[in-house]
């Protein structure tokens, strides 16, 4: 029943906007075949801001190393003639009012896609001043945080051959920001788990696993202690797993998971989990493959997508010193280009980045090298120039 | 008022840890110290007897009082531990515990939870030190995780609001936060540790972790000789897997403590080699091995007593018997480093009794 209404509403959305492009696809669909239109097709719709062949993407510089890294992204994109225009929205984290972040949210609603740096949360301010990043994620309902940790051959790490996809529920759980002090000296913080969101994230995880050809999904939880909350999450995962018989499903308690991750990380394939455990596990995995400067992350919602570095660090201590690693932000930009279906540009830039990382081995200080940020970016642009098919014709 | 009560309770709690040079003299004059021993289930009895043998070889002034804990229903229908175990523990104040099994659907809560509630074991201390003979990808790890053990996310308060929406309550109180912070700083001072790091997520959980952090800061004011830093949980995880040598003592609420202490155990080789201690109010301290009961190898003389042995060493240090503790620890580490008689989980194929005998021999050689 829900599928019918989703399909019918989808056809209503498609026809007026994309009548020209997808007209053929839609017209030859009868009602019965429309039922076969899965949610995946819905996800393949490019975002609506394409005008004159160019996309508009919201850019939120954030604090710390965000602004300088995003400048490098703009530089590389301009150099590679990527048809993306950035609409820059500044968010001042020192102010108490929420106007800035609301402007950013409106801009993202308008454009559909965003690339952002991390906005600092000053936790000495009053508790009513909520984390800006969290506000952005919940307002836009970016329910899935996806992070792909892969060992890179050019980076020296203790563990090799890691290839883990982490899907983390991004809107509820411990990050509901619902706290109160009922008695002086006693604070209660509510962790909310809902059936709808758990089903949604589990479904996303299994669909992504199937799409990427993965064989196993592991749910991470603490249901032996939080029997109702995490128990509900686990139950929803099991229900969704039964609809994907080709994918193995198992579960693991979060403390055992972290222990296994530092001893044998190669055993994990795809992992799905609620918000807080996702924070811990994604940071552990990022550390295992080489650090916060290497892994990009994406936050997907039904209608919007926001790309950033996976570990969401502000990097205040290294800001402005030209030593930050631009890899994570540049790879996040490539993920964004993939989302905008500009696959050629994405693979061109990604290959250049990986060449610099693995073959040229020009590394920044965080992975043991001596290069500066600008040197690495220059090297990437040189790689694009020498190999990119689109620029050699100029 | 509350301050005085806390201070007296605190002095009783750290009294055990804070007995420097005069301790050995006091014990020698007092003679043997009695310790409650709870062998546990599965491999529990064999590793407990291994530890007793090693202590005998080291001539440590410890007399063991064995007790069993199984949940029994007391008056009023509440589950409790057997009264003789409780009485023994209250008298001796120090306990050593092997692994306990929690039967599923037994109707009673886990034994560990019962013990925690009975003795108000509010601090779980896990020192994680790299073992030289047991290779892991991480070297030179030397840190201690101190975890608040009574409240936080594990308060067990959950409700179904409406069908499909569940709420779990994370409870942070001023008293518990202050108590654990004070214990952490006292531990750091007594064990010559230079810094204490509070692990939190106050950017998201502003009020709850904010309260925890405030209390830690307040307590830090009274310990100016120890460096105090605060770090986000995700930053700690990130840095821990890249460079664990930068951490010293970590203090944190319950859930983060659970995850981080197991993470650190994984860094040094797993739960089979990690000691653990639970400190309670009124001077009670129970040291335990945190691995499972391993029913598949129970009774086959294949178990590894290292975790329980290192916990016993922690116990000796807590009681002020540092010499004995160091002697036994050195013997144990030497045996593992030599790699001649290792149990199966450490990569060898010797029996538990052979491993124990080797350690006893080394102790006698050290004398």
From TrEMBL, chain A:
- Which N-terminal stretch is annotated as signal sequence? none
Q: Which UniProt keywords apply?
A: ATP-binding, Magnesium, Manganese, Metal-binding, Mitochondrion, Nucleotide-binding, Transit peptide, Tricarboxylic acid cycle
Which GO biological process categories is it annotated with? Answer: isocitrate metabolic process; tricarboxylic acid cycle
Under the heading SMART domains, the entry gives: Iso_dh
Protein origin, superkingdom: Eukaryota
Q: Which residues form the Isopropylmalate dehydrogenase-like domain?
A: 56-380
List the subcellular locations: Mitochondrion
GO CC aspect terms = mitochondrion
What cofactors does this protein use?
Answer: Mn(2+); Mg(2+)
A GO term, aspect molecular function: oxidoreductase activity, acting on the CH-OH group of donors, NAD or NADP as acceptor
Q: Which PANTHER family match?
A: DECARBOXYLATING DEHYDROGENASES-ISOCITRATE, ISOPROPYLMALATE, TARTRATE, ISOCITRATE DEHYDROGENASE [NAD] SUBUNIT, MITOCHONDRIAL
What role does it play?
Regulatory subunit which plays a role in the allosteric regulation of the enzyme catalyzing the decarboxylation of isocitrate (ICT) into alpha-ketoglutarate. The heterodimer composed of the alpha (IDH3A) and beta (IDH3B) subunits and the heterodimer composed of the alpha (IDH3A) and gamma (IDH3G) subunits, have considerable basal activity but the full activity of the heterotetramer (containing two subunits of IDH3A, one of IDH3B and one of IDH3G) requires the assembly and cooperative function of both heterodimers.
Question: What family classification does the UniProt entry report for this protein?
Answer: Belongs to the isocitrate and isopropylmalate dehydrogenases family.
Q: How does it assemble?
A: Heterooligomer of subunits alpha (IDH3A), beta (IDH3B), and gamma (IDH3G) in the apparent ratio of 2:1:1. The heterodimer containing one IDH3A and one IDH3B subunit and the heterodimer containing one IDH3A and one IDH3G subunit assemble into a heterotetramer (which contains two subunits of IDH3A, one of IDH3B and one of IDH3G) and further into the heterooctamer.
What name does UniProt use for this protein?
Isocitrate dehydrogenase [NAD] subunit, mitochondrial
Gene assigned in the entry: idh3g
TrEMBL record, chain B:
Which segments of the protein form a coiled coil according to its record? Answer: none
Q: Does the keyword Calcium apply?
A: no
Q: Which cofactor does it need?
A: Mn(2+); Mg(2+)
Q: Where in the cell is it found?
A: Mitochondrion
Where would I find the Isopropylmalate dehydrogenase-like domain in this sequence?
A: 34-359
An individual GO BP term:
isocitrate metabolic process
GO molecular function annotation? isocitrate dehydrogenase (NAD+) activity; magnesium ion binding; NAD binding
Pfam families, per the entry: Iso_dh
| Cellular component, GO, one term | mitochondrion
Matching InterPro entries: IsoCit/isopropylmalate_DH_CS, Isocitrate_DH_NAD, IsoPropMal-DH-like_dom
Subunit (UniProt) = Heterooligomer of subunits alpha (IDH3A), beta (IDH3B), and gamma (IDH3G) in the apparent ratio of 2:1:1. The heterodimer containing one IDH3A and one IDH3B subunit and the heterodimer containing one IDH3A and one IDH3G subunit assemble into a heterotetramer (which contains two subunits of IDH3A, one of IDH3B and one of IDH3G) and further into the heterooctamer.
Q: Which PANTHER family match?
A: DECARBOXYLATING DEHYDROGENASES-ISOCITRATE, ISOPROPYLMALATE, TARTRATE, ISOCITRATE DEHYDROGENASE [NAD] SUBUNIT ALPHA, MITOCHONDRIAL
Family, per entry: Belongs to the isocitrate and isopropylmalate dehydrogenases family.
Reported function = Catalytic subunit of the enzyme which catalyzes the decarboxylation of isocitrate (ICT) into alpha-ketoglutarate. The heterodimer composed of the alpha (IDH3A) and beta (IDH3B) subunits and the heterodimer composed of the alpha (IDH3A) and gamma (IDH3G) subunits, have considerable basal activity but the full activity of the heterotetramer (containing two subunits of IDH3A, one of IDH3B and one of IDH3G) requires the assembly and cooperative function of both heterodimers.
Q: What is this protein called?
A: Isocitrate dehydrogenase [NAD] subunit, mitochondrial
**Species of origin:** Sander lucioperca
Q: What is the lineage of its organism?
A: Eukaryota, Metazoa, Chordata, Craniata, Vertebrata
């Amino acid at each position: 029943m829900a599928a019918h209404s989703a399909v019918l509403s989808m056809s209503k959305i498609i026809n007026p906007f994309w009548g020209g492009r997808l007209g053929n696809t839609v017209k030859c669909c009868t009602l019965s075949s429309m039922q076969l239109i899965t949610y995946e097709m819905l996800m393949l719709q490019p975002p609506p801001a394409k005008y004159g062949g160019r996309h508009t993407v919201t850019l939120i510089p954030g604090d710390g190393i965000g602004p300088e890294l995003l400048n490098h992204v703009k530089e590389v994109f301009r150099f590679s003639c990527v048809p993306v225009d950035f609409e820059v929205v500044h968010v001042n984290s020192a102010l108490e009012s929420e106007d800035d972040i609301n402007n950013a949210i409106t801009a993202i609603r308008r454009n559909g896609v965003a690339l952002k740096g991390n906005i600092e949360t000053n936790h000495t301010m009053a508790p009513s001043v909520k984390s800006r990043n969290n506000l952005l994620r919940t307002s836009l309902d970016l329910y899935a945080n996806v992070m792909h940790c892969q060992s890179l051959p050019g980076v020296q790490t203790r563990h090799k051959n890691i290839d883990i996809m982490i899907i983390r529920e991004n809107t509820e759980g411990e990050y509901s920001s619902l706290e109160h002090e009922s008695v002086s000296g006693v604070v209660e913080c509510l962790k909310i788990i809902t059936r709808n969101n758990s089903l949604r994230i589990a479904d996303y995880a299994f669909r992504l696993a199937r799409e990427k050809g993965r064989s196993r999904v592991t749910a991470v939880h603490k249901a032996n202690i939080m029997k109702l909350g995490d128990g509900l999450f686990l139950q929803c995962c099991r229900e969704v797993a039964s609809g994907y018989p080709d994918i193995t499903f198992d579960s693991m308690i979060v403390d055992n998971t972290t222990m296994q991750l530092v001893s044998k990380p190669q055993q994990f394939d795809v992992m799905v989990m609620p918000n807080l455990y996702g924070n811990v596990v994604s940071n552990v995995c990022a550390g295992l493959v080489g650090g916060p400067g290497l892994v990009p992350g994406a936050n997907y919602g039904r209608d919007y997508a926001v790309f950033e570095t996976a570990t969401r660090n502000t990097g205040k201590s290294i800001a402005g010193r030209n030593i930050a690693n631009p890899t994570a932000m540049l790879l996040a930009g490539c993920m964004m280009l993939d989302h905008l279906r500009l696959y050629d540009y994405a693979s061109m830039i990604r290959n250049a980045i990986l060449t610099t990382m693995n073959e040229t081995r020009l590394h920044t200080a965080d992975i043991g090298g001596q290069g500066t940020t600008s040197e690495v970016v220059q090297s990437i642009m040189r790689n694009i120039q020498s190999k990119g098919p689109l620029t050699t014709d100029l | 008022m509350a301050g005085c009560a806390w201070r007296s309770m605190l002095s009783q709690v750290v009294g055990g840890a804070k007995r420097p040079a005069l301790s050995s003299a006091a014990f020698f004059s007092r003679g043997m110290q009695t310790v409650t021993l709870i062998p546990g289930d599965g491999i529990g009895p064999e590793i407990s007897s291994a530890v007793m043998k090693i202590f005998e070889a080291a001539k440590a002034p410890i007399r063991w009082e064995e007790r069993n804990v199984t949940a029994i229903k007391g008056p009023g229908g509440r589950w409790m531990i057997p009264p003789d175990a409780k009485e023994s523990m209250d008298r001796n104040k120090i306990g050593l515990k092997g692994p306990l099994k929690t039967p599923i659907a037994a109707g009673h809560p886990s034994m560990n939870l019962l013990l925690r509630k009975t003795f108000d074991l509010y601090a779980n201390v896990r020192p994680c030190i790299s073992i030289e003979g047991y290779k892991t990808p991480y070297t030179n790890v030397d840190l201690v995780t101190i975890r608040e053990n009574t409240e936080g996310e594990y308060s067990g308060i959950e409700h179904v609001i409406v069908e499909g929406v569940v709420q779990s309550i994370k409870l942070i109180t001023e008293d518990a936060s202050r108590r654990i912070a004070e214990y952490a700083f006292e531990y750091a001072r007594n064990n010559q540790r230079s810094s204490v790091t509070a692990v939190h997520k106050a950017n998201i959980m502003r009020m709850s972790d904010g309260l925890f952090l405030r209390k830690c800061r307040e307590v830090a004011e009274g310990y100016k000789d120890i460096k105090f830093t605060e770090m986000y949980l995700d930053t700690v995880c990130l840095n821990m897997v890249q460079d664990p040598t930068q951490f010293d003592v970590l203090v944190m609420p319950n859930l983060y403590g659970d995850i981080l202490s197991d993470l650190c155990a994984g860094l040094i080789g797993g739960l089979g080699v990690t000691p653990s201690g639970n400190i309670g109010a009124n001077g009670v301290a129970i040291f335990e091995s945190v691995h499972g009961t391993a029913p598949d190898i129970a009774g086959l003389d294949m178990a590894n007593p290292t975790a329980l042995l290192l916990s016993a060493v922690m116990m000796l240090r807590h009681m002020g018997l540092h010499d004995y503790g160091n002697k036994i620890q050195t013997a144990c580490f030497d045996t593992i480093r030599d790699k001649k008689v290792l149990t199966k989980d450490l990569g060898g194929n010797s029996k538990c009794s052979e491993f124990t005998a080797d350690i006893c021999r080394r102790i006698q050689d050290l004398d």
